[in-house]
Amino acid sequence: MTETINAGTAGTWQLGDLTVNRMGYGAMRLAISGDGRLDRDQAIAVLRRAVELGVNHIDTAAFYFSPLRSANELISTALNPYPDDLVITTKVGPGRALDGSFLPEATPEQLRLQVEENIGQLGRDHLDVVNLRIGSTLDRGAGSLADRFGALAELRQEGLIRHLGISNVGPEHLAEAQAIAPVVCVQNQYGLTVRREDDDFVRLCADQKVAFVPFFAIASGAEDETVTAIARDHGVSPAQVRLAWTLHQGLNVLAIPGTGSVEHLEENIAAASLRLSEAELARLDGVNGHEPGRGE
Ligand SMILES: NC(=O)c1ccc[n+]([C@@H]2O[C@H](COP(=O)([O-])OP(=O)(O)OC[C@H]3O[C@@H](n4cnc5c(N)ncnc54)[C@H](OP(=O)(O)O)[C@@H]3O)[C@@H](O)[C@H]2O)c1
Question: Domain NADP-dependent oxidoreductase, which positions (predicted)?
């Protein structure tokens, strides 16, 4: 697959007026990877290689930091001055203490500070896309997001944010947010073998021209015979099959695989050109007893 390594081979999607390749990159692991000791030069090399290979959508957050690393600082060091077409998506909501623990949901005033923090760290005068993260990685948020999303909508009006998204949410949150300001993306945990209850949500987002941006598309998956067999048939890795499956879930689905390895990065971007047949997709949908199209 090496001859076609380009993030553009899976096509593009509009985040509002911003065009992104559907295969992107998630920067969290650069700062929070294992013991947090990923080599700094390697992290910078991964980011630069991502852009070389056509990645123009990078997901990050000011709270992606460890005692030794900040994802935003690495992005700025590696890529600023930024390519014109690069879209950097950040997220705000929870804060993180220096010991890494998450702080309670931010107040509207704290959200403004978080937006300003991201702007400062990335060295920009505004943010392209900001997700309001209301739940945790494990749990979808509960309750209303109106106050917090309304606060971000005001920052959008002020020009500090171009487009808004929401993260760790359900369809009820999308409806609530859309009534306040346009939503360009939903970012939830979702993958071949995780959170398939969001199948219908992916389609609902597609109907509203909202991007669905799953995280842990690779990391959530335990090794599985069907995935491995299909990978073998294509001469690719199971991670590539999981990413390709993700991109086959709808044109509005954007991938943001994270890695601290240039080799894995190249594999992941190569998966943008991996086409799975209907028969293979049906086999994959049967993995772990999932019934195709169930969508509870
Ligand atoms: N909104 C939210 O609440 C939220 C929560 C979590 C994450 N996110 C976003 O989602 C992005 C993706 O999440 P993620 O990075 O945790 O999960 P991921 O992309 O599903 O998986 C990353 C893990 O898989 C490994 N990996 C990557 N490519 C591989 C390959 N080709 N072969 C084998 N292993 C591979 C990585 O290790 P190596 O480094 O060794 O490759 C890492 O351990 C994050 O960067 C972040 O931007 C958002």
Answer: 22-288
Q: For the domain that residue 207 is a member of, what is the CATH number? A: 3.20.20.100
Q: Which H or E element spans position 109? A: helix 108-122
Q: pLDDT for 248-285, tens place per residue?
A: 999 999 999 999 999 999 999 999 999 999 999 999 98
Count of domains observed in the chain: 1
* Sole residue written with tokens 């010991």: 99
Pocket test for ligand 1, best of 37, 173, 215 (most atoms within 8 A of CB): 215
Of 23, 259, 261, 269, the one to substitute when testing ligand 1's pocket (max ligand atoms within 8 A of C-beta) is 259
Phi, psi of 208 (to 5 degrees): -100, 10
The residues annotated as belonging to the active site are 64
- Indicate whether 197 belongs to any domain: yes
Provide the 8-state DSSP code for 106.
Answer: P
Nearest atom in ligand 1 to 188's CA? 1
